Amino acid sequence: MILVTGCAGFIGSNFVHTWLSQHDEPVVNLDKLTYAGNLDNLSSLANDPRLVFVQGDIGDRALVDKLLADHQPRAILNFAAESHVDRSIHGPGDFIQTNVVGTFNLLESVRAYWSALPAAEQAAFRFLHVSTDEVYGTLAPQDPPFAETNPFEPNSPYAASKASSDHLVRAWHHTYGLPVLTTNCSNNYGPFHFPEKLIPLVILNALAGKPLPIYGDGQQVRDWLFVTDHCHAIARVLEAGRIGETYNIGGWNEKANLDVVNTICARLDQLRPRADGKPYAEQITFVKDRLGHDRRYAIDARKIERELGWRPKETFESGIEKTVQWYLDHPEWVQGVTSGEYRKWIGKQYG
C-alpha cells in the first residue's frame, strides 16, 4: 500500500487515477480539502476498493501517526501543498503553515514510523516529495535550463515555502537516513486543473465570453508538462530513483504565456466556435503584472531520462488539445469549482 497526500488536488488526483489504472496496489489518500482539493476529482473511483480516503492535514501528527500505524504503507508520496503564486502574495501565512510546518510534521511522523520498521522494510521504504522548478528562481533568455545542481533562489512566498520544504526533506535524509526522493517539475496542465491557473482560466473565460487576462506583456516563458506525463515520471522515480537524489521533470516545451493563450484560442475556434464567428483571441486583455513575476522557467530533464529512461510523451500541441477537449466534455465539474470562494478570488485578483 502507498499513502498519497494532497490526493484531491490537481496533480495528486491525476496521480491516483494513473496509478490505479496500472497497479492493483491500494492507495490511502489524505487531503485537507481546502479550496483546491476537490473530491469530484476522484468521483469515478468512489467505489474502487483499492482506494481509502481520509480528510485531514499533513501537519496533524496524531492523525498521520494513526494512518501510518493502521495501513503500514511502503511509500509516501507528498503532493500536499499550497501552490498558487498569486495567493501566496496576498496571504503567505497559509503557505508557510502547509508547505513548511506541515512538511516538517509529516517528516517527523514518517521518521518515527520508518525507524520502527524491520530492517528489510526500512530498506524498501520511500518518501517521495513533489516540488516545483520555482525554487530555482528565474532565468534570463540566454540562460541554460534549470539543472538539479542549480542553487535555490526563490522569488515568491510560494517558491520560498517550497524551497524550505525541499531543504527539510534533504536534511531528514542526510541527518536521520530517511530514504527520500525529491522531484521538481515544470508547469503542469491537463484535466482537473483548478481554474485560477492560466490554462484552465483562459479556457473557461473564453467559453464564458469574458476577458482573457494576461499579466504584463505576456512574454513570461514557462516549460509546460502534461500532467499524465508527470504522473508517469513520479511513478518511475518511486520505482527506481536513487535514494537522496533530486530529479527534474519537464516537458521540453518552453512557451511564452501569450503564445499559450493564442494556442488555446485557436483550438477553441476549431472545437467550439463563437456564436458571432469572431476569434476568441479578441477577448485577450493585458492586465497589470503581478509582483515579482519571474520572467522565465525552463527544466533540464536529461538526468531522469539518462538514469530512469523517462521522457514525456505529449507535445504541447497534443497535450493542449486533450486539455481543451476535457474541459469541453466536463461542464458539471467546471460548474462545481467555479462558484463561491473561487469567484471572489478571481474578482479580487483580476478586477
Quick overview:
By secondary structure, the chain is of the alpha/beta class. The protein contains 13 helices and twelve strands. The chain has a domain at 2-188 and 226-252 and 293-313: 3-Layer(aba) Sandwich (Rossmann fold), CATH 3.40.50.720.
Q: Would you give an account of this structure?
A:
This protein is of the alpha/beta class and 351 residues long. The chain has a domain at 2-188 and 226-252 and 293-313: Rossmann fold, CATH 3.40.50. Helices cover 45% and strands 16% of the residues. It has helices spanning 10-22, 61-71, 85-90, 92-115, 119-124, 157-176, 198-207, 227-240, 257-271, 302-308, 316-329, 331-337, 341-350, and strands at residues 2-5, 27-31, 51-55, 75-78, 126-132, 180-185, 187-189, 212-215, 221-226, 246-249, 254-256, 284-287. The strands form three sheets. It has a seven-stranded parallel sheet with strand order 3-2-1-4-5-6-10, with helices on both faces. Strands 7-9-11 form a three-stranded mixed sheet. Strands 8-12 form a two-stranded parallel sheet. β1, α1 (10-22) and β2 form a beta-alpha-beta unit. α1 (10-22) packs across α8 (227-240), α7 runs parallel beside α9 and α9 (257-271) packs across α11 (316-329). It starts with a strand and ends with a helix. The model has no long low-confidence stretch (mean pLDDT 95).
